[in-house]
């Protein structure tokens, strides 16, 4: 994550037609952030749909070149177009860095049971250099939560 938090960091996905430009891109960002993004896609879609999407991708593009958009299309198709994977994943693959997420629970003070309380969730780009002002598009972040009725 350190390499992806520097001002010199690059996006995970870069379009290049030149092989000499591609080889240096096999670095820690490709492997570690790439693996994290794949795990996130599997979590969002569910293991079965994710597997079906990958099978469709490999079958449809067998022995041909493929792009990131081809993968998104196959995953969307496996999910019956219930989610726009490209919209979800572009923030993670098309821009450098990652967010710091802050979650604050706001309690309804008039109710002892916590009914009416809510959470305020915000994000900002992380940087190792504190004075760095980084403007980025927001990331789509999967978020799961449980309330007190979870095991009832």
Automatic annotation (TrEMBL):
Domain Peptidase M1 membrane alanine aminopeptidase stretches: 1-92
GO cellular component, one term: membrane
Record GO terms (molecular function): metalloaminopeptidase activity; peptide binding; zinc ion binding
Single Gene Ontology BP annotation: peptide catabolic process
Xref: Gene3D superfamilies: Neutral Protease Domain 2
One Pfam family named in its UniProt record: Peptidase_M1
InterPro entries associated with the record: Peptidase_M1_aminopeptidases, Peptidase_M1_dom, Peptidase_M4/M1_CTD_sf
Protein name per the record: Peptidase M1 membrane alanine aminopeptidase domain-containing protein
Natural source organism: Adineta steineri
């Amino acid at each position: 994550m350190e390499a992806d938090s520097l001002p010199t960091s690059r996006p995970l996905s870069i379009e290049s037609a030149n092989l000499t430009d591609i080889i240096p891109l096999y670095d820690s960002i490709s492997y570690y952030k790439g693996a994290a993004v794949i795990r996130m896609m599997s979590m969002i879609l569910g293991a079965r749909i994710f597997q079906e999407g990958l099978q469709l991708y490999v079958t449809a593009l067998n022995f041909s070149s493929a792009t990131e958009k081809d993968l998104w299309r196959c995953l969307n198709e496996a999910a019956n177009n219930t989610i726009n994977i490209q919209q979800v994943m572009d923030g993670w693959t098309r821009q450098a860095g990652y967010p710091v997420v802050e979650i604050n629970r706001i309690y309804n003070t008039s109710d002892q049971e916590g009914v009416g309380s809510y959470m305020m969730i915000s994000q900002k780009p992380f940087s190792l250099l504190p004075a760095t002002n980084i403007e980025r598009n927001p990331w789509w972040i999967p978020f799961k939560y449980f309330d007190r009725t979870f095991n009832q």
